[in-house]
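Morning run. Coffee first, then this:
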Amino acid sequence: MRTFFLAVILLVILNLLPAQQTTASAPGDLAKAHELLNQGHPDQAIAILKKLATVEPPIKGVEHELGTAYYSISELPAAKDAFAKAIKQDTSDLDSVQMEGLVLYRLGQPEAAIPYLERAVQGAPDASGDAQTVLGLCFVAVKRFDDARVTYAKLFDVPPESAAAYLLLATMLRHMQLSELAATQAQKALDISPNVPLAHFMLGEIALDKSDFDQAARQFEAERRINPDYALGYERLGDAYMHLDKLPEAQMALTKAITLDTDLTSAFVKMGMVLLRRQDPQTAIQYLQHAEQLNPDDFETHSFLAQAYHKIGQEGDAKRENAIADKIQHDSQMVLQTGK
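And here it is:
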């Protein structure tokens, strides 16, 4: 009987030994996986972490590290599962909460991402800008624009009901190519504060995109009155006047833009265009040559230089500029085709 009990005890010890050895080596293995991940070897790290993830009871930090490794190689479904397990094992793991939200957003599930990102932002006052930015994007995606505005206001430390907050949301919407929604928010900013800078500028740019040049000119003129030292505002105003065939007004606006910013390439190019249309190719060449010095790879600059040289009979120079313009256009098309 004594021999039987000794055999049973020995069997139990032998069965427990591998688990005890694994648990004892876990901290070292976890550190090794973390180091491999930092050194740019996620596959090797994942191999170690997957083994550690099978240990019972669960080892703290393994699922978070595994999620991070999967995220680094864009294995998003696997990352989502790992971070979900990390949160289940440790509800105070706000890093995993935040990452779960970011993963869900990247998987095209903004509504599902919102609770995680809200929890991350609320639980950590100094939460990363990524969490707050993506939370705002999620709110926009599900058309919760007021919540998006409050989120961006918090990120940029402005009052949520201020004109600045509405303009911030307008800017984000414009970046997302939601121009009509951006215009609505920019107008709300002006309703709150009629002299808020850059709201009229944004409305002018949106009007330019729609080829509503009269409206664009009105908005840029309004911006000029509020923001008289903003070079880009004068450049856009000159563009609008040029499209309206108000060439003297366009030239004056572009002169102001260039006076304020001698490195604003687009203003020099547009000035060259205006002068060509005003039958002053010699002066146009001077502005276009300066634009070429600022940006040698601009197609429009070389194209208009070719036209200017042709007008004054310098055919050799015109041919050279056309050849450069053709090469720039060809190289640009090749880049688009190859996706580089």
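Residues 4-14, 16-22 have pLDDT under 50 and may be disordered. Good start to the day.
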